[in-house]
Amino acid sequence: MKKYLLSLIFAAFIAILPAAAVDLFPINDISADGNTSWGYMNEDGQQVIPFQFALADPFTEEGLAAVTNSRGEMAVIDENGRRIIGFRAAPQQIEYGDHEIAFRYETETTYFTKQGQLLCTIPGAQGFFSEEGLVAVKRGNRWGYANRENTLVLPARYRQAGNFQQGYAVVQQEGNGYAVIDTAGNAIPLPSDGTPKYMEVYGGKAVILSNGNRMSLYSLETQTPVVEYMYQEISPFENGYAMLRVNGNWGIINLNGNITLPIQYHYLSYMGEGVYAARDADGYVSAIDANGNLIYRTYVYAGGFESIEHGLSWHGTMDNGIIFFSRVGGYVSKLPNAENPKILTEDVALVTMNGKQQYVRLHDVHPLYSPEREYDMEFFKVTTASYEKYLGKRNGQEYGWSLTYPVLSGMNDRTIQSKLNGMIESFFLSGPSAEARSRKLEGSYGLMVHGRVLTVWADCTCGEGEGAFIWNDSLMLDLVTGKRYNLMDDLFQTGYEPALGELLWEGFSLEEITCPRMTYSGVAFYLNQPQGRAQRAPAVQECTLSFNQLKDIIDTEGELWQALGGSAVGVLLTYQGYDDVPEGHWAYDSIKAISEADIMQGNGSLFRPDDLITVAEVCAIMVRVFGLDTTSITPPDGAAWYYTEATAAKKAGLTNGLGEQINYTAAMTRVDAMQVIANMLVQQGEPALTNQSEIESYLSQFSDNGLVPENRRAAAALCVKTGAIVGSDGKLGTQDVFTRAQFAQILNGLFITPEQLETEEPIEESAD
Q1: 600 and 747 in contact (C-beta within 8 Å)?
Q2: What are 530-568's pLDDT values in tens digits?
Q3: Whole-angstrom distance between the N-terminal and C-terminal Cα of the chain?
Q4: Please, which residues have CB within 8 angstroms of residue 672's CB and are 6 or more apart in sequence?
Q5: Helix residue spans in 495-612 (DSSP H)
Q6: Which of 528, 519, 499, 503 lies closest to 432 in space, CA to CA?
Q7: Pairwise CA distance, residues 755 & 89, whole Å
């Protein structure tokens, strides 16, 4: 087991600060076993709401977000993490209106104010309450209008009903004719030669009608068409404007029937916030307003110009980049080798860059956070590989495989490591079955270590629509021998079936269970239920039996059971030694301990014990010790190898006191090392020394204490007080330098166990 005296709590700790007028965005963390938790980060890269939710939506412009807990209940929070609406049964959808929040359930809708006050629950409601306090409701097979007291103000006598806007609503009457009604139910019949394209009254004065082939705009004021049936398509009005099409060309019309944008564009779509994406004959793609005023234009378009989110949109470029631009005009930033953007705030987007997901601050192209899965499993490390396979198009949509799987590293036995990685990759890239290889497959993985057995499982969905199913099969691998186990055959005794069948819960049978999986305390058996007409999504039922329940049928003499109770320690972490550090070397024990703890590393078979340790190497060591997150640090082109580690150490305050201009390639002097070690001790919780008399009392025992610079005396005294530095021949040797072996011995002194601290003397450094 690693002997860490310095706590790694520092690495996991994130200050929780209140959100104050700052845009937040959701970030997720996935544990090794595949459990995902969500929290929120601000644009400075600070996590202000900790990981605590099973799901988390982006915040609206009003500062509200829907979150889900582990029980599947949903709530609405503000940017301080305060629950505006407490957790309650999850609706099918949460919608935000101008004045209300709607929790939509299958047969009813519950409405809240934006401050979280419960307003009412209305069966069969659609949309939001109008300014007059009415909402369309379905009673039986007819529609009417109710108020917030759930009283029918207008009887349920309509075959269809749109919501009131500016005092009017479109309805389909009992005799199939359409009309526009006011809040008293008075009807204005619509012409019989057409039907409403949308059940809406625009601007309180116009309805879009369709005769099956063409569309027109009908005025309620004059009860005559504003424009005749001459357009093949008219979109819903947004802010008083609608797009219209004649043959292959598009333009824009206002509520008075006036063309504000000539019908000349080959492509036109509404992006939101009064902005339209347009393509003209010249091949340029532009963002324009409803009057044709140019907002943004590009000739390097390669996809994008989608909805305006938080005042921004984007488009791809021919060189595989993404350009973000503002709704008011102007270039914001460009991300190279990027795809799949999702705008989260006015300055942050989630993108895939160079194959890795990154939350990027746009104004300075600074990565804030990466949800990429990386784990230290003590006996080995895990990184995540992605696999994409294009299968074609179905119903106009591209489909294929998109999944991730684990890759092992850091094992001493590279042959076993390669064998395990090969089996893991083959498992995921083969998929659930030969028949499923032509179907959509997406998802990720989970893993756990039990004894010396690694269990890896798929967490994927295969297919879409009816027949789609959860793929949660697993494989069990011996970390020492590389063997793959079969759970049922290798764990249980011969003839286990009758006894196991009696233990399974009601509704489970041996013939139907699929993909049994090891857990830390037993075995989980699953019933996979494909999506069908009566089931909206594929599902899984789980039956978990403990080892105690299964004890009578477990083969306790079997290889698998022995491996589950065995340990990989001593096999996976066996110290291989270095050619230049024989067992008789004065620092052998320290170098062995520090190497096994993965704190200092050699270069292949050489440790280079007599080389002087550099400031850069010390920074790299500190990053490993404190488990500092380096995923948000992107080295510039041509940066030195230590750029990431040095930047992380500086951000964490571990190089405080070394000055503004640090020479990272220089040998670390003893006085600089004292400052760094003191920083490490303070980060751990050791109180800094501030009393001058106390400082001088610790230093006065060394004959060269006068050579300790004034700005380093407190740090040097703290090192002496804690026993981290004891000097040699009565001297501190402040301007001397360290060899790698000497620094390994000091680190080993810092990393002994608390029990050893009570019995062992401080370690004196060798002068050799």
Answers
A1: yes
A2: 888 767 788 889 999 999 899 999 999 999 998 887 655
A3: 30
A4: 615, 658
A5: 497-503, 547-550, 559-565, 588-596
A6: 528
A7: 51
